[in-house]
Each structure stands twice: as structure tokens, then as C-alpha cells.
Amino acid sequence: MFPLKAYLTAVVAVLFLAACSETPNSPSVIQGNTMGTTYSVRYYDDIGVSSDELKQEVDILLVEVNRQMSTYQGRSEISQFNQQNAPYEQKISAEFADVVFLSQQLYEMTGGYFDVTVGPLVNLWGFGPDGRPVNPPSEQEVQAALEKTGMDAIKLDKLTLSLSKSAHRYVDLSAIAKGFGVDLVAQLLEAKGAHNYLVEIGGEIRVSGMKPSQQEWKLAVETPETDAALGARSVQKILNLTDAGMATSGDYRNFFEVDGTRYSHTIDPFTGMPSAHSLGSVTVIADTCARADAIATAMLVMGTEKALALAKEHNIAAYFIVRTDNGFQEQYSEAWKTRFN
């Protein structure tokens, strides 16, 4: 499994869709558990297999993603890589290599803010498999963990499917693997002839085509209220979307407080500290869910000003909910405005 990714969530979107399902043209639906959360698939096409048969295939596919990339499984490919001392080289699966390759590209594009080697810091702050510490780590502990991070020590050979490290590194793909899982399920549906579908894992979403009424998929973005960690949810914005991946990253579900100080799970790879700014959530729309997933995470870490600059430079459709003294303020990238105007 993966940690419950609290930088959700458009999972409200699925609840909203369920409440608004059409009859008699209701979609076929399958649901299940994966990566420490849940998944949902809705489709309107006749794909030649029953929903039960499709669910079996989806479950097998997602179990394989976990076998390759879950840090919560001690014998997964990624755990085997993390457990070995450097220098070390390991053969990996093609899907694992694809995710590492995309992670390397996005590391460069975000100026280092999307860094899958921050695992030692994630674990140090208690957001990894080992659970929460009694007290926040000391400055010395943070600096020691920082020295064990950095993509420069990770090398990928896609031709030989080999992943190597020249220094101690702990790779954590939880900020991109759910989105990648969504894309794999979407590819499975398309291979079976489906063109009108929604796939969701833990709030990360990919949609294609239309409903029978020729309407786009109606999705919702959650308000980043801190009491959402206790189960309270409210909708900030409703979107109509098709043929895209969408992911929301927020600081309002996975955090802890010590002596009145709030520590979020989003770790700044440059300081080693949990991000501390007014940006409550970021929603990104991209061609794939994996890409949206990773970019939303990076933008949440870097904060509104840098995220808007990144969105402008790379024409990224991004939507920001910022906390102010007067409540929440919405900001949009130019690409987002263009898409929804």
C-alpha cells in the first residue's frame, strides 16, 4: 500500500457524480481498495467483459503497481532498492522505470521541487511507513536527512531497465504513483474499447469522452478546511472536464500539531522542513494523471508565487486556493482561465 495521500482531493467529485447519476443511462461501476485508499471506475461503453471480470483485471494491475513501487511493502522493488547500501544497481520493471523517468523530467521542470528522494525527510517527520515521532526532529536530524537526498545520485538506464544510486538514497514515489495507477487503468479501458469513462484513485482522476447526455464529466474540488481531517468536507468549485487527468494536492488532511505549531506532510526538499505558507491546495489539469499528480505536489511545496510562475512558463492549467485573514481566495493560471472561459 501507499500512505493515504492527503494532498487530495477531488474524491468529492466521485461522491458528487454518484449523487447525480443518470437513469436509465447509468454507468457501469467498479470499486475497490488499493494503495492505502480506494479506487472507482465508471464507464458507459460496452467493453465485451462483465464488470466483475474488469474488476479482476484492474485489481491485478494495481497489485502489480504496489509490488513495484510501494514503500509500505518490504519486498517491493522500490523497497529492495532503498534497503541496499550504495553504490548499488538493480533491474526494475518497465512501469517502475517509466515513473522514475517522468520523475526525473519533472524534477528538472520544477527546479528541484518535485524530488522523489525526499523519503528520508518524509520518514523523519513521521509521514512514512514508520509513523509519527513523539516530537518534531531537531535541526541536526533534519540536516542529516537532507544530506541523504538529491536526484543527482540516482541514475536510470531505460534501455537495460536498470536503476542505480551512487550514494545513500531512499526513493518515495507516493506523490506520483497513484496518478500513474490511474493512467494504467485508463489504458486498460481504452484497450478494451472504452472511450467514455472516469477513473479515480484516492482523489486522483482521469476522464475521457462524454456521458450519454453529451455532457462532460462533472467534478468537484474540495475546500481545504483543516477539519476535513476529521471527515468534514465541503465543495469549493465544480468543474466540467473531459479527456484529461486532474489531481489536487492540499495541506489539510495529513498533518500533526505540537505545542500549537502545525506540521504538514508536504516537505520542502531545500530546507527539509514541512512547507509553511498560505497555499491551501492546488489543482492541476494535464494530459495524464501522473503528470497532474506530481505537478500539483510540487506547486503545493513551492507556494503560490513560484507555482504561478511555473504555470506561466510551462502553460500549466492550475487552480489555487489560498488562505487569507478574510477566508479563502482563488487564483488561476492563464492556462486554467483559457480552458474554463
Automatic annotation (TrEMBL):
GO molecular function: metal ion binding; transferase activity
EC number: 2.7.1.180
Cofactor note: Magnesium. Can also use manganese.
Residues bound to Mg(2+): 175, 293, 297
Cofactors that this protein relies on: Mg(2+); Mn(2+)
Pfam families according to UniProt: ApbE
UniProt membrane topology term: Lipid-anchor
Gene3D superfamilies reported in the protein's UniProt record: ApbE-like domains
Signal peptide feature range: 1-21
Listed GO CC annotations: plasma membrane
Classification via InterPro entries: ApbE (IPR024932), ApbE-like_sf (IPR003374)
Keywords: Cell inner membrane, Cell membrane, FAD, Flavoprotein, Lipoprotein, Magnesium, Membrane, Metal-binding, Palmitate, Signal, Transferase
Localization, UniProt: Cell inner membrane
Reaction catalyzed: L-threonyl-[protein] + FAD = FMN-L-threonyl-[protein] + AMP + H(+)
Main location: membrane
UniProt record similarity statement: Belongs to the ApbE family.
PANTHER family documented for this protein: FAD:PROTEIN FMN TRANSFERASE, THIAMINE BIOSYNTHESIS LIPOPROTEIN APBE
Cited function: Flavin transferase that catalyzes the transfer of the FMN moiety of FAD and its covalent binding to the hydroxyl group of a threonine residue in a target flavoprotein.
Protein name: FAD:protein FMN transferase
